[in-house]
Specification:
Immunoglobulin-like; alpha+beta; six-stranded antiparallel β-sheet; 683 residues; eight-stranded parallel β-sheet; 14 helices; 19% strand
């Protein structure tokens, strides 16, 4: 037998074995045959996932029980009034509890050492049955390291931490209110098409300060509801000592950030959103953790290897943070319990997993272009420990909470990330289509120059992804509106002054960019708060580099409330765009049929969910009797040129557009769009 034939037989045998081990791998390979050479990778991942899941079942009684670590770890009031405490500190020589309750005597309450690096403590109740550790009192875990050093630490399972006055470090506050918040409303049904309003509580006020959960509940949730968004993604909720980290340097994973208010106030926010029919997702950061040790996870037991990899593998050089040891049994318990906690305690409906690209690869995506060659997604560069954790996390969420939603922030394009685990995939529902906003940012200079100088530029390239994100303001970067209109937004946004060319074109392009992304980008749409009305300037948090200023860490919602300013037009368009999607459901419809991408005319036309979308991106031309391929008769239902959106009213909305038995652009029928068109959506 020739060597090539032997390799082929071996390859076929390996494929058959992989298909036998992974229940629905055949379906994945049917969808994408180019993944066949990597069938053994999917097989290995699936087998490792199953082995880990089975080990959890045999040793912990199943993932349901395993993910309830928060019920025993940390500090808990017992039914008899006593206190039960438990920690995992494998590198510690001794563990103690101290705080207000014992006048900060560091050694009066020692923990008992258990197997596998665990420690536990039971403190009997007081004789008068009063609370041993009252609600609101301060606590610390005291660690005696193997070198004899005495370390004061916050429990990794702490439910509430706060910083008092000018203190540098956070304090652990025992949270055990007499009357905890009781949820009043049931969760909304899982949306058929996600329209997400990405939100940061702290910047949600127009004032130069940190806003509160209460402020967001009373003032921002009604706006979100009115705009037609059916989901909010909450950023920077998990406690982070450094505000300017945007919430991505987590110090206390089980604590809701105290800078906005109390845990009960966050529960009220989520409950109120549910009463409005709004799904609530949490930005969960399991990709890395803050390097803080006195008020973070780092060096908890006096070693660098407790929750994290030891040595260089445990450090993210770009983010200056620590990286989890995902294959560690107790790290898995901690992270899976953390997911369960936010659902059970706060009522979140799902998660957007941050930094998934960093988790998936040993190189963390640094210096990688990700050309799309499938060899980039398989092999030794993949961190399969992290990948198996993500599979376990999705399995946990979708098994216990079938209506929950998981979203992966991945810029690499990892194949099968959003495929079911039974197919060998990672199990996410959506991925963020980061390439789409990146492409608009690349286009911004060319679009502006083409409109200013009448130049032609190729703007018709588009790529299908599972979940699209648009207008997500980056820290320090301009908003989309400010890229389009820049300094003229300070002087020419009044309706009492004539349109300038910059403001006119900027407003029209802002609407068109949002609509084409919404309709053509994928199965979901995400908008960062404020960009729906063309928020000016940029986003930047208080830090030394800007003299701790809050000027750019706020959202100026009052601009859209001012009837004399043009921001209202962009806001109106966003609202009606979302409400039309709710009515017609294009996000949950099959992908669009693009019938025309005419480079010279700058016309893009496509059909989706029974709607015909027509865009004219030409900087200087409008058209009469422009033929567009289609299948039936239409009326205008959304028009960026309408007066209520700051347009020029060049289209007659009473016109019926009748299709003719005339083939055009591979469509069986076509119609003529009469009069001048700017951007037209018909149904």
């Amino acid at each position: 037998m020739a060597a090539s034939e032997a390799r082929a037989d071996c390859s076929e045998a390996a494929l058959a074995e992989a298909l036998a081990d992974v229940p629905e791998l055949a379906r994945l390979l049917e969808i994408d045959p180019y993944l066949k050479p990597f069938a053994q990778d999917f097989q290995r991942r699936y087998k490792r996932f199953n082995e880990t899941l089975n080990n959890i079942g045999e040793n912990e009684g199943g993932i349901d029980k395993f993910s309830r670590g928060y019920e025993s770890f940390g500090v808990h009031r017992c039914a008899d009034g006593g206190l039960y405490c438990k920690e995992w500190a494998p590198g510690a020589e001794g563990v103690f509890l101290t705080g207000d309750f014992n006048d900060w005597n560091p050694f009066s309450y020692p923990y008992k050492k258990l197997d596998y690096g665990k420690w536990e403590l039971y403190i009997p109740p007081k004789r008068n049955k009063s609370l041993l550790v009252p609600h609101g009192s301060k606590l610390k875990v005291v660690i005696r390291s193997k070198s004899g050093e005495i370390l004061y630490r916050i429990s990794p399972w702490a439910k509430y931490v706060t910083r008092e006055g000018d203190n540098v470090n956070y304090d652990w506050i025992h949270w055990d209110p007499e009357h905890p918040y009781k949820f009043k409303h049931s969760k909304p049904k899982k949306p058929r098409g996600l329209r997400i309003y990405e939100s940061h509580v702290g910047i949600s006020s127009y004032e130069g300060k940190i806003a509160s959960y209460k402020h967001f509940t009373c003032n921002v949730l009604p706006r979100i509801k009115d705009l037609g968004y059916n989901c909010i993604q909450m950023m920077a909720i998990m406690e982070h000592a450094y505000y300017a980290s945007f919430g991505y340097q987590i110090t206390s994973f089980f604590a809701a950030s105290s800078r906005y208010g109390t845990p009960e106030e966050l529960k009220e926010l989520v409950d109120t959103a549910h009463s409005m029919g709004i799904t609530v997702l949490l930005d969960v950061v399991h990709s890395h953790a803050s390097k803080n040790s006195e008020d973070g996870l780092n060096m908890f037991d006096g070693t660098d290897s407790c929750y994290f990899h030891s040595g260089p593998r445990g450090n993210h050089d770009l983010w200056d943070s620590r990286l989890f040891a995902y294959s560690s049994w107790e790290v898995l318990r901690f992270l899976l319990s953390n997911i369960r906690w936010w659902v059970e305690e706060y009522g979140f409906d799902g998660f957007r997993f941050d930094g998934v690209t960093s988790m998936l690869y040993h190189h963390h995506g640094m210096g990688q272009g990700f050309s799309g060659d499938y060899h980039e997604y398989f092999g030794l560069q993949v961190d399969e420990d992290a990948l198996i954790y993500l599979m376990l996390a999705n399995h946990l969420i979708h098994t216990l909470y079938p209506d929950s939603i998981t979203v992966a922030e991945d810029v690499s394009g990892m194949p099968a990330l959003c495929s079911p685990i039974s197919q060998g995939g990672v199990g996410f529902d959506y991925r963020l289509a980061m390439a789409i906003p990146d492409k608009w940012i690349q286009f911004k200079v060319f679009i502006l120059e083409s409109f200013r100088q009448g130049k032609n530029i190729n703007i018709t390239s588009a790529m299908y992804m599972e979940f699209c994100i648009i207008n997500a303001a980056l820290v320090g970067d301009k908003t989309l509106a400010f890229w389009l209109m820049d300094a003229e937004m300070y002087t020419n946004m009044s309706v009492l002054t004539p349109f300038t060319p910059v403001i006119d074109r900027g407003i029209q392009l802002h609407k068109m960019i949002r609509l084409i992304t919404h309709a053509l980008g994928g199965e979901g749409y995400l908008n960062f708060m404020g960009n729906e009305f063309g928020h000016p300037e940029w986003l930047d948090f208080p830090r030394k580099g800007n003299n701790e200023s809050y000027h750019y860490a706020r959202r100026q919602f009052h601009l859209t409330d001012d009837d004399l300013l043009r921001y209202k037009f962009l806001n109106n368009f966003d609202r009606d765009m979302n409400k039309l999607e709710e009515r017609c459901g294009w996000l949950s419809a099959p992908q669009a049929h693009v019938s025309e991408k005419h480079e010279a005319n700058k016309i893009i036309a496509f059909e989706r969910a029974g709607l015909l979308f027509i865009f004219n991106f030409h900087p200087s031309k409008s058209y009469t009797d422009y033929r567009v391929g289609t299948t039936c008769t239409f009326k205008i239902v959304l028009d960026t040129d309408a007066a209520e959106y700051g347009g020029h009213q060049r289209l007659d909305h009473n016109t019926d557009f009748f299709s003719e038995d005339f083939k055009h652009n591979e469509r069986p029928y076509s119609l003529l769009v009469s009069k001048q068109i700017s951007t037209l959506l018909t149904v």
